[in-house]
Task: structure prediction
Amino acid sequence: MVLYVKKHHGIIATVDVELKKRIRNFGSIISLSNDKIVLEPSKI
Result:
């Protein structure tokens, strides 16, 4: 999954902190915070 997102610059929905750290460098993350959906932008 990480390689696919790295190649195609996709969006991942996860609550896994380690996966967020790996994806954040080249893709965007959707997470849940206080019953709200939050789009965390990539660092590129």
